[in-house]
Design a protein that fits this description.
The chain is built from six helices and 32 strands. By secondary structure, the protein is mainly β. Among the domains are: 236 residues, Metallo-dependent phosphatases (Purple Acid Phosphatase, chain A, domain 2), CATH 3.60.21.10; 139 residues, Immunoglobulins (Immunoglobulin-like, Sandwich). The strands form six sheets. It has an eight-stranded mixed beta sheet, covered by helices on one side. Strand 30 and strand 31 form a beta hairpin. The longest helix has 17 residues.
Length: 585
């Protein structure tokens, strides 16, 4: 061993700000105690995401751009605020009998862009409708049904395309007193924490149908258990557009919902509907409208510079509505405005913690739910994630209380592991998560039991080779035989410098897995008197870490051995290096 290398044992080393105590971007870490705590508020496994678009129904570059933007969001479903089709509205019109429905304007203006969100009829009348479940929920607009003079279709064509299924189940909801007739179409649909009440506002000359819907909305909202309740219809009761607002839709019942979604005016606008936010999302593909000056006094935000749609994200704690526009020339997406109702943070139904384990060690995890318990009580579950990422290892034991989980797994990989603790609704509350890393090697007491009692102290050196019992134990060498065996993991600290002024590499081998109950540290000093400073360390539940982001490379040159290499910056100053070992606790 070169004269400037020293190997020393220490019973303690200075307190360090260990890197494993600093949470990463996606997970926190176990501290040296092997226990963490937190709170779980179960809701949806992932927040619900859906898109809202209106006044899009004409094939062309604007609709293609908006629909492509929406597809990038990967929404769970799509809501239309009306005017789904500006073309000829006869759903039986077909210029190509060999391909039923393919030439129909409903297919070219809706199915071509959203067909994989539409449940297909069993008779396959509209081939572009290909979804296994209905994930498109439309609203009747004035361009979707008579008596609008600009088209000759009827509401029956709208229902034929979206709802009717002569040989199968109806494709739009029919429960909760929904109505789908040649006069009017309205329904409610529950998706996760959101209840959508889809109204038909295109009946301005039918006060009886308006009154029936007002009564239906009031009763339906009162009966709903959803966290968020949204009303959806076409013509807005308030607007900054040049066209008159829909006075027949000025309902007190709309104040019962959390938000109102409309279309009809070809822009994006957010207004205050007497305490309830009203969103106009009508910039889905038809030419954009101007705003009148001055705008409506209840207008809070307006944009007509881009074609746009709404991305809505929701769970049990928050509802976020993002108006997003798209450039027709560059396809670049722009966030126009974000509105959040409820808590700005999503429900926390899982936490992930990371720790380090070596091959051959046993990972033991246990959850606990301390009192006071919620009603119903929290029932955590555990998933262990190996360094390779897959496969997940679920908990397989139930603790005696029948509520908490235990997990024990023999590691076959060396690296950074993660454990995910999660829970499903309705239980919620605090938890403790305990981790133990069990080495196959004996602890110090068992290892030193074969030594004479007078020579079993960690500071003793029975073979007088300059290495204490603690160091011999840490390196898994023989305390009764001087030096280190040729086939042992430890062969000393090694230095390599390819050129006199080049970088210096310090490397060393240690047993793998390491014996339990120890921490390791590599230190450097200008002389043997010190001061000694830490270059790298390995603390419980963490891999080797370098001071000041010092890079550390690890490898396994042979079974049972793990090599660490530290790349040190070039220096002309002479240094001594040592390995320091301490007992935990």
């Amino acid at each position: 061993m070169p004269p400037f290398l020293r190997l020393l044992a220490a019973l303690a080393f200075p307190s360090l700000a260990l890197a494993d105590e600093v949470p990463g971007p996606d997970s926190a870490a176990f501290t040296a105690s092997g226990q963490v705590s937190g709170i779980l508020l179960p809701g949806l496994e992932e927040p619900l995401r859906f898109a809202v678009v209106g006044d899009f129904g004409l094939s062309g570059v604007p609709l293609a751009s908006v629909s492509s933007m929406m597809r990038r969001w990967d929404p769970d479903f799509i809501v239309s605020t009306g005017d789904n089709n500006y073309g000829p509205l006869d759903s039986d019109a077909d210029s190509n009998p060999a391909l039923p429905g393919a030439q129909n304007s409903w297919e070219s203006n809706v199915g071509a862009f959203f067909g994989d969100y539409l449940l297909g009829r069993e008779d396959r009348k509209f081939p572009l409708q290909q979804a296994p479940t209905q994930r498109f929920f439309p609203t009747v607009g004035n361009h979707d049904s008579a008596p609008d003079p600009s088209n000759g279709g009827t509401i029956d064509d709208y229902l034929d395309y979206f709802h009717f299924n002569p040989t199968g189940q109806a494709r739009l909801p029919t429960d909760r007193n929904a109505v789908h007739s040649s006069e009017v179409s309205y329904y409610a649909v529950r998706q996760g924490p959101v209840d959508l009440f889809v109204l038909d506002g295109d009946v301005p000359l039918r006060p009886d149908l308006i009154a029936a819907q007002r009564a239906w909305l009031s009763a339906s909202v009162a009966a709903s258990t959803a966290r968020w309740k949204l009303a959806v219809f076409h013509q807005p009761p308030l607007t900054s557009g040049y066209r008159a607002a829909a006075s027949w839709m000025l309902w007190d019942e709309l104040k019962l919902v959390d938000a109102i979604l409309c279309g009809h005016d070809h822009f994006y606008e957010r207004l205050d509907y007497f305490g309830t936010p009203l969103f106009i999302s009508g910039a889905g593909g038809q030419y954009l409208y101007a705003f009148r000056d001055p705008p409506h006094p209840r207008s809070l935000f307006r944009s007509n510079s881009l074609y746009s749609a709404l991305l809505v994200t929701a769970d049990q704690s928050f509802l976020r509505l993002e108006s997003r526009g798209v450039s027709l020339s560059t396809q670049e997406e722009t966030l126009l405005e974000t509105t959040t109702l409820g808590s700005p943070e999503p429900v926390v139904n899982h936490h992930t913690y990371r720790f380090f384990a070596e091959s051959g060690e046993t990972i033991a995890l246990r959850s606990a739910t301390p009192p006071p318990l919620s009603s119903p009580p929290l029932a955590p579950s555990l998933d262990l994630i190996p360094p390779s990422g897959l496969p997940l290892i679920p908990d397989h034991l139930s603790s005696p209380d029948g509520r908490n989980s235990e997990l024990s797994h023999l590691s076959s990989q060396t690296g950074s592991w993660q454990v995910k603790i999660s829970a499903s609704a309705p239980g919620r509350g605090a938890f403790l998560l305990q981790l133990a890393i069990l080495s196959p090697l004996p602890d110090y007491a068992r290892w030193s039991a074969s030594l004479p009692p007078s020579q079993a102290d960690p500071t003793a050196d029975p073979d007088r080779d300059g290495c204490s019992n603690l160091l011999e134990y840490a390196l898994q060498s023989n305390p009764a035989q001087p030096g280190f065996p040729a086939d042992g993991a430890w062969q000393g600290l090694r230095l390599h410098r390819p050129s006199p002024d080049g970088p210096l590499t310090l490397s060393f081998d240690l047993p793998s897995p390491l014996p339990p109950g120890l921490s390791y540290q590599i230190e450097a000093a200008p002389d043997l008197q010190g001061p000694w400073q830490a270059l790298a360390w390995r603390a419980p539940f963490a891999d080797w870490q370098g001071a000041d982001a010092l890079p550390i490379l690890t490898s396994s040159p042979r079974p049972g051995t793990r090599r660490c290499s530290l790349a040190l910056p070039p220096t002309s100053t002479r240094h001594f290096f040592r390995l320091a070992v301490s007992r935990n606790g």
